[in-house]
Amino acid sequence: MAETTADLGTRIGGAVASFIVESPVYPTMVKKAQQTMKDTAALGGIDWDEEVEKLEKLGGWDEALESVTGVPNWTPDQLPDYFKQKFHAYGEGNLCWQAAKEQLVAGKAVGVRNFPMYGAGGEDHMRGKFESTIQRMGAFVEDGGLIVDLGCGTGTSTRRLAAAYPEAKEVVGVDLSPYFIAVARRLADAPSLLSATEQEVSGRVRYEWGDATKTGLEDGSASLVSLCLMIHEMPAAETEVLFKEAYRLLKPGGSLAIMEMDPESPGFTRLQQNPFIFSLIRSTEPFLGEYFALASSPELSDMLQRSGFNAIRRMACTGRHYSLVAVKGGEADCRFKAGAEYGAPDFYGEADTHM
């Protein structure tokens, strides 16, 4: 099969990103990028170092990790190679305490950067758009239903889903990083670090360490499976395996809900037109080029259909992100409730305010 232009661009861009990572100036570039994130957080009134210190003071981190992995001195030898990449410019990627302890404040900083007019509330606004758009497209949960949040990180998305769907009996967050799961569980025991809403829903939330492509959870048990900003951190081949696992987990009529970056949005289109900046970002997101190629083609929908989903709807979520809902067919259908309606056609319904 002949190589497409998109494939060629992905390959060349990957080579440039690899060159950047191996460059002697890369550590300096990383420090500058990290300081930029801290400065962005400060614009929203968020003290990055203070937020991380609050987590550090909880203590007992070695014990927390061992309680997740079940063994002392755990090593990631058995994890898939793709997950051992240097995600987000951390030397050990998602497999270190620094990444885990900084994820909460990093999410807030990203919110400030995308929605500066909301300040520290930018992340709430962005995640709220995901929750409202998937409900408009029919992602509903019946009373007593189960929600599974794959790639849950330290649990922000998991706790928010529990709040957005009070009718759910339980929300299970799954992540392949034991460090992230350890932080998520410790947060559950530290209510002072959670919002009042997060504290209220904590009793309905649990976190499991595991591979999202093979969770081990029961067939047909979930009403909703969520993938929030996860697919861009996986190879395309693993994404299809992930979709098949989500389909297996869902009840008939259950929904897979996805929030991701939209490579065809005006902001990301401009970004891709600057080869150096895009390659620099790709050096911190090893599979971003592969994901952009996937999401810009019919292959993403084809993957969902091959996985079994027979109703797929996608709409703009923010000026740079889309929401997608894919429904598992069958006799039961929990998509509709009184007064519910599907969302409007695709549109960039909110200005791209990214800094």
Number of helices: 14
Order of helices and strands: HHHHHHEHEHHEEHEHHHHEE
Show unreliable segments: 1-10, 338-347
Percentage beta strand: 5-15%
Could you give a short account of the major beta sheet?
7 strands, mixed
Number of strands: 7
Overall mean confidence score, pLDDT:
89
* Class inferred from helices and paired strands: alpha/beta
Report on this model:
The chain has 355 residues and is of the alpha/beta class. 45% of the residues lie in helices and 14% in strands. A seven-stranded mixed β-sheet has the order 3-2-1-4-5-7-6, sandwiched between helices. Strand 4 (222-228), helix 10 and strand 5 (250-261) form a beta-alpha-beta unit. It is globular and about 55 Å long. The model is unreliable at 1-10 and 338-347 (pLDDT under 50).
Q: How would the blueprint of this fold be written?
A:
Elements: H1 5-22, H2 26-43, H3 48-56, H4 61-69, H5 97-114, H6 122-136, E1 146-150, H7 156-164, E2 170-175, H8 178-188, H9 196-201, E3 205-209, E4 222-228, H10 236-249, E5 250-261, H11 266-272, H12 275-282, H13 288-295, H14 299-306, E6 311-316, E7 321-327
Parallel strand pairs: 1-2, 1-4, 2-3, 4-5
Antiparallel strand pairs: 5-7, 6-7
Task: Give me a quick take on this structure.
With 355 residues, this protein is α/β, with parallel strands linked by helices.
Observed structural traits:
355 residues; alpha/beta; globular; disordered N terminus
